[in-house]
Design brief:
The chain has 398 residues and is of the alpha+beta class. It has helices at residues 78-93, 97-107, 110-136, 141-158, 165-178, 211-216, 220-235, 238-257, 265-276, 284-300, 306-324, 332-348, 355-366, 379-386, 390-397; strands at 5-12, 20-27, 30-35, 38-43, 49-52, 56-60, 71-75, 188-192, 199-201, 206-210. The longest helix has 27 residues, at 110-136. Belongs to the peptidase M48 family.
Length: 398
């Protein structure tokens, strides 16, 4: 490629800060540097790094971390610099298969290389998180129970329950129908006094319903639909899968940006995640899975699945009203109670009922059998259920 071509150059010997000014004669892969009485005969293969500069190019003889490296700077056009770089890369590729692969990548167009990098990272990420999903299968269900119980202690200490014989009867009958046979979980429902119309489940099978949901429910099937959805979260181990994903993500970030494994920072981070992960909102995929699974639970018992959709519609209306009233002044005590309650429901509840999700749920319900059973307790008992904790609803509305 180069046949006895001469270029102006400078040679830094790695000792003196003053370079030797001279010329370099390039013939094949041999570089002869001449400066007065000084001469250096170098082979292109000897240089460990090649850098393009605004004046031409710079060749570094050895890695800087070893010691200060001799450097040869060649003053030439961009075209000649590119040609010399190609010649250097070709010499490096001939060293070994590993070098051939590495330097072939270096030769690629930056845009193509960027696109390829994104694809590779995407593929690795996909299999990484799929692998994390499989890790959950290796964790015993008893761990779900322990995690749930640790969070339950915190919740029970902050909220006042107001269960009655009617609510116990209703949820006992509903659980008998909805919980799938052979479930490894022990489910129990408690009612929390609050006007917020929502519900959430812990990984140990403890499910909490806010009394506002029962007070405002249009029918039993609404509450049963929400119950089925929360049971699905527990049965599908969404809490543990969240924990594993969060821990795996933390580990991946630590390995990429600088691991804190040496001083146990990662373990500390993982512990913090473990104490809070159960109060994180579920991902869209988990919510979709819970929707689909809950509909299947209801249909298996010939229960009407339309109640869940009805609940989401009311949730949407509630969210709109709540947004519109944000600027209005409210009673300080009521507002404080709502803030505390909302802080938990924001974390623990299902995601807001988006239009997209409601459309998917509606399509799912319409595509299968409707279910004929809409009640699990008598109308009298249901009225008693709806009247639970009304003092909390009335105090919040003042």
């Amino acid at each position: 490629m180069f046949q006895n071509q001469t270029f102006t150059s400078r040679y830094f010997d790695g000792v003196s800060a003053v370079p030797e000014e001279g010329t370099v004669l390039i013939h094949g892969q041999t570089l002869d540097f001449l400066s007065g009485e000084v001469a250096h005969k170098l082979n292109l293969l000897q240089f460990t790094e090649f850098t393009l500069t605004h004046k031409g190019c710079k060749l570094t003889l050895m890695p800087d971390e070893v010691k200060e490296s001799p450097v040869l700077e060649i003053i030439c056009s961009k075209e000649d610099a590119k040609k010399l770089e190609s010649l250097w890369i070709q010499s490096k590729k001939n060293e070994s298969h590993a070098h051939a692969f590495f330097y072939s990548i270096r030769e690629m167009n930056p845009l193509v290389l960027g696109a390829l990098s994104i694809i590779i990272v995407g593929i690795i990420g996909f299999f990484y998180f799929k692998g994390l999903e499989m890790v959950t299968n290796l964790i015993p269900v008893s761990m779900d129970k322990q995690l749930g119980e640790s969070v339950q202690l915190k919740i029970d200490s902050q909220f006042q329950e107001c269960n009655t014989k009617a609510t116990d009867r209703f949820f006992t009958e509903a659980l008998k129908k909805v919980v799938p046979k052979g479930s490894p979980h022990q489910f129990k429902v408690s009612v929390i006094g609050s006007a917020i119309p929502n519900a959430f489940a812990l990984s140990n099978g403890k499910i909490y319903f806010f009394s506002g949901l029962l007070n405002d429910a249009k029918s039993q099937e609404e509450v049963i639909g929400v119950l089925a959805h929360e049971i699905a979260h527990v049965e599908k181990r969404h809490h543990m899968r969240n924990l594993v994903k969060a821990g795996g993500t933390s580990l991946a970030i630590s390995l990429v940006v600088g691991p804190g494994l040496g001083n146990m920072e990662f373990l500390e981070t993982f512990t913090e995640i473990g104490s809070t992960i159960l109060v994180l909102k579920f991902s869209r995929d988990f919510e979709t899975e819970a929707d689909v699974t809950s509909i299947a639970y209801l249909r298996n018992q010939n229960l009407s699945p339309s109640g869940l959709l009805s609940f989401f519609k009311r949730m949407q209306e509630f969210e709109k009203e709540n947004t519109e009233s944000d600027d209005n002044q409210t009673d300080k005590n009521a507002k404080n109670d709502q803030v505390v309650t909302q802080s938990f429901t924001d974390f623990l509840s299902t995601h807001p009922a988006t239009e997209e999700r409601m459309k998917s749920l509606k399509s799912l319900i319409e595509s299968g059998k409707k279910g004929t059973i809409k009640k699990v307790v008598s109308d009298k008992t249901w009225k008693e259920v709806q009247a639970v904790c009304l003092e909390f609803k009335n105090s919040d509305s003042k």
